[in-house]
Design goal:
With 380 residues, this protein is α/β, with parallel strands linked by helices. The protein contains 14 helices and 7 strands. It has 2 domains: 232 residues, Ribonuclease H-like superfamily/Ribonuclease H (Nucleotidyltransferase, domain 5), CATH 3.30.420.10; 126 residues, Serine Threonine Protein Phosphatase 5, Tetratricopeptide repeat.
Length: 380
């Protein structure tokens, strides 16, 4: 079949009237376990889920993984977990968030509430109801910084609803990338959810790319079979956000025991110049020949160099060289510490000579020049 024939087939199938049964609102409510709602702006459906969950009163560790939040005092009751299911992936005026899911803490429970279109005119009614939930809240999203929050602001504007975000949002995508940089290869919501053991039944879930079509079949033809999957997908996404935050706040002991987590965190600390783990980390735990250990030690050395604690830098490098004996980074760093900082020139030449021999062995001409300069300068 030619590409033209394939295209004609797609056009024909999309224009063919569906043979789905047209359910009444009463039947939709019954089959999807929804609640009917109406206000002076219109009508819409809602669905509610409640979970008994332990949670901290205030966030303590999340802010330390996002420099924009560093030093902020955030009560967990100020959070609103937020996820949209939309008619497309654009941010334009033609993209409708037909299902808005929010999560919040109430009476020691985690509550998820979903707002679903009952008809194409439902948006204004949903937006009007949503205002009271999101007012003065801190949004918790997954890539919401680039999609969910800008789209919501667009829809509020289109519906002539005034809203200004007074507080910063928490985008867990960026925090998960920092935290799990050396543990996961992908950082989509489903991959991270699976790693954190958030139950998600693949037989009743749906891929995000299929969701816009499900909505069109639901709103135009009354098909509701797959809408149940969309509701499930959205609920699992929001619950996953809560699970991620719980991991950050409750599993912080693993920050000092899981080497891959440690490496991801301390790399971000060096990048942001905000330190909480590096200040107290015990470098002796990583004096074993392993690539992750070496990277951790390297970052610890950089940290203490920034603090200008040269005796500490000397101590860590000398211990590290007993494990990573011919590592040129360590040899160069100890040479610089002795030559430039501690003024122990004889020791500087000893390590410069070692570095020169290793660099010569591997044909590293620039490194050879550096070491030779120090050796010759001392001789003169």
């Amino acid at each position: 079949m030619s590409d033209l024939d394939k295209f004609k087939k797609i056009i024909k199938s999309s224009s063919t009237k569906k043979s789905f049964k047209k359910y009444s609102k009463r039947e939709i409510i019954s089959k999807l376990s929804l609640k009917y709602n109406k206000n002076d702006k219109g009508e819409y459906f809602t669905k509610k889920y409640t979970y008994n969950q332990k949670y901290p009163e205030k966030l303590k560790y999340t802010q330390k993984l996002d420099k924009k939040l560093y030093g902020s005092e955030i009560s967990i009751r100020d959070l609103i977990f937020f996820d949209l299911e939309t008619t497309s992936l654009s941010l334009g005026a033609g993209n409708y968030p037909f299902l808005i899911g929010i999560g919040f803490l109430k009476n020691k429970k985690f509550v998820i509430k979903q707002f679903l279109y009952s008809e194409m005119g439902s948006e204004n009614a949903i937006i009007d109801e949503l205002k009271s939930y999101i007012k003065d809240k801190v949004f918790v999203t997954y890539n919401g910084k680039c999609f969910d929050i800008p789209l919501l602001k667009n829809r509020l504007l289109i519906n002539s609803t005034k809203y200004s975000a007074k507080k910063k949002s928490i985008d867990l995508l960026y925090i998960m990338r920092r935290l799990f940089k050396y543990k996961l290869k992908k950082f989509d919501l489903q991959t991270v959810s699976a790693y954190l053991n958030t139950a998600r039944d693949k037989y009743i879930d749906i891929h995000g790319s299929e969701i816009p079509k499900v909505f069109k079949d639901y709103i135009h033809f009354g098909e509701i079979k797959d809408m149940k999957k969309v509701l499930y997908h959205n609920e699992r996404d929001i619950f996953s956000l809560f699970k991620m935050l719980k991991f950050i706040e409750f599993e912080h002991n693993s920050y000092s025991s899981d080497k891959k987590l440690i490496l991801g965190i301390i790399e971000y600390e060096l990048l942001s110049n905000k330190y909480f783990l590096l200040k107290n980390i015990n470098h002796d735990k990583f004096l074993k020949k392993d690539n992750i250990n070496y990277k951790i030690l390297k970052n610890i050395i950089i940290y203490y160099k920034r603090q200008k604690k040269w005796e500490k830098v000397e101590n860590i490098i000398l211990k590290s060289l007993k494990v990573f004996t011919q590592n040129l980074f360590l040899i160069k760093e100890i040479t610089k510490v002795y030559y430039l900082r501690l003024k122990k020139y004889k020791k500087a030449v000893i390590y410069a000579t070692t570095g020169y021999k290793i660099a010569s062995k591997y044909g590293l001409n620039n490194e050879k020049k550096y070491y030779l300069k120090i050796i010759n300068r001392y001789k003169s």
